[in-house]
Amino acid sequence: MRSIAVLVVGALVAGAAACGGKPPEFSGSDASSMKVGLAYDIGGRGDQSFNDAAASGLDDAKRNLGLRTVKELEATPGETDAQKSERLRVLAEAGYSPIIAVGYAYSEPMKRVAPDFPATRFAIVDDTMARGPNISNLLFAEEQGSFLVGAAAALKSRTGHVGFVGGVQSPLVKKFEIGFTQGVKYIKPEDTVDVKYVAQPPDLTGFDDPAKGRLAAQGMYDAGADVVYQAAGGSGAGVFEAAYQQHAWAIGVDSDQAKTAAPEVRGNILTSMLKKVDVAVYDYIASILDGTVKSGPTVYDLRLGGVDYSTTGGHIRDIQPRLEELKQEIIVGKIKVRAA
Q1: Which of the listed CATH numbers 3.40.50.10540, 3.40.50.2300, 3.30.70.260, 1.20.120.330 matches domain 142-275+310-331?
Q2: For residue range 292-319, what is the model confidence (pLDDT) as tens digits?
Q3: Most exposed residue of 72, 94, 214, 263, measured as fewest CB within 10 angstroms of its CB?
Q4: Which Pfam families does the record associate with it (predicted)?
């Protein structure tokens, strides 16, 4: 885990000037006395996806770094920014530092709360807009990992017809869609890519509605798709159910979902796009302990090992050499993957 942290220390200073001044200095902390607060997005621990990846990083930090005191709070469907702000404020007033917010939905709440607690460290996953001398932005090159699973979909599809199901049509989730489509078209320009979003903003329930996820994927399979990639949080469970029912392939996201999804659907998960939120959470906590924490953005890309694809089940063993070639071509810049 710490190998990535060593690589990114230099990059962590990026964006500090945009925060309005020099970030506060932290000379290191004692893990046994550190109080870590984790504010989950909708679905929380147990969503088998994005939130669980963050939870895994926290668990690794508890196990390997000696953390003793943690507090985990979870967003609820339909809640307001004021409620999210109150969640962050409750943690800060109780002396938790750092406080890690999982998801861009915490952007405005963090902008409101972090300035009131200048001695508290905050981090936010997947957001660049909340900036401040005590805020770290943990970002990912989702489009790069999605390109690779898009290539996998094209290489394994027998119908030349694949699909993408997103949770909420937001700039972040569009990165998954755009990268996936580019990967498919790079391999087979003539292939068809269906796209469906479970919900439109400001409705964020699209990340926690398996029934709608199943319906979206079912429509694609009925239309001839034989591989569907989901970036839909808890709604992705419905995509897997549809793949199981249709004897088709699905592609997971964030975590290695062939290990975490319901046992009956795991055999239908071709691969998963790994977004290593666990690594970012772990490294962020470790950087506070060793006194190297900085404010501003860090982008976890293929080069830093922040995104990748899974191989569980052995379903892509035959195409893995080609995927590895594509990965290296992205890393060296031969292939440019668009994010928008």
Answers
A1: 3.40.50.2300
A2: 999 999 999 999 899 999 999 999 999 9
A3: 263
A4: Bmp
